[in-house]
């Protein structure tokens, strides 16, 4: 899916600088992997150039958009529009089509599967980069996340008020992570996952 480019130079620093100059970008807009550290040799003999494989963040977003559009087309979804951004370590993809419900699937399962697929591909390409993928369809996931966080906050307030642990309804791993992150800095409660399989859920506990 991702089409890496390669450049060789007398040092890693020089190779990176050449790319930054060519694309007129800052280093935080470049994702690269060192292929060869290179060596200077003796009096120029036995020297070996340093080499990196790289993509700009803009390249990565464009390649993912092409890949995602191809997937949706194979699902017989017409009039697909995919937009993307890559800010810091987060790649956000927003899909819009005339069949959004089909892309979302029951309880968001199809959308979750699409996000998981792209996340795995990115992880395989960049094993040393902690990149996060967020795929949404016309704001569906953002709205659901906001509702989920508000639900968790309400239960957390009850736990703090009545000083009694409370179990939330079963959720998938993505939903549980949203709640863990939402309450991780709460002064009064903590969260942990419990149960197995489809019964896996979060317990909000008093600290």
TrEMBL record:
Q: Which InterPro entries match?
A: Jag_KH (IPR038008), Jag_N_dom_sf (IPR038247), KH_dom-like_a/b (IPR015946), KH_sf_prok-type (IPR009019), KhpB (IPR039247), KhpB_N (IPR032782), R3H_dom (IPR001374), R3H_dom_sf (IPR036867)
For this UniProt entry, the molecular function terms from Gene Ontology, in alphabetical order, are:
RNA binding
Q: Name one Pfam family in it.
A: KH_KhpA-B
Q: What is its main location?
A: cytoplasm
Q: Which UniProt keywords apply?
A: Cell shape, Cell wall biogenesis/degradation, Chaperone, Cytoplasm, RNA-binding
GO cellular component terms, alphabetically, are: cytoplasm
What biological processes does GO assign it?
cell wall organization; peptidoglycan biosynthetic process; regulation of cell shape
Per the record, the domain comment is: Has an N-terminal Jag-N domain and 2 RNA-binding domains (KH and R3H).
Q: Which family does it belong to?
A: Belongs to the KhpB RNA-binding protein family.
Official protein name in the record: RNA-binding protein KhpB
Q: Which organism is it from?
A: Culicoidibacter larvae
């Amino acid at each position: 899916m991702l089409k890496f480019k390669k450049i060789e130079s007398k040092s890693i620093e020089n190779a990176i600088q050449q790319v930054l100059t060519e694309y007129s970008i800052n280093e935080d807009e470049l994702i690269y992997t060192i292929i060869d550290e290179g060596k200077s040799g003796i009096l120029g003999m036995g020297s070996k150039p340093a080499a990196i494989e790289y993509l700009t963040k803009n390249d990565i977003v464009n390649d993912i958009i092409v890949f995602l559009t191809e997937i949706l087309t194979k699902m017989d979804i017409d009039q697909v529009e995919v937009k993307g951004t890559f800010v810091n370590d987060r790649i956000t993809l927003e899909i819009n089509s005339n069949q959004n419900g089909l892309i979302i699937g029951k309880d968001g399962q199809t959308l979750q599967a699409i996000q998981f697929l792209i996340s795995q591909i990115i992880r395989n390409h960049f094993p040393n980069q902690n990149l996060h993928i967020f795929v949404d369809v016309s704001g569906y996931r953002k709205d659901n996340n906001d509702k989920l966080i508000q639900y968790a906050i309400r239960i957390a307030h009850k736990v703090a008020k009545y000083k009694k642990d409370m179990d939330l309804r079963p959720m998938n791993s993505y939903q549980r992570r949203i709640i863990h992150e939402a309450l991780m800095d709460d002064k009064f409660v903590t969260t942990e996952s419990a149960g197995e399989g489809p019964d896996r859920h979060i317990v909000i506990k008093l600290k």
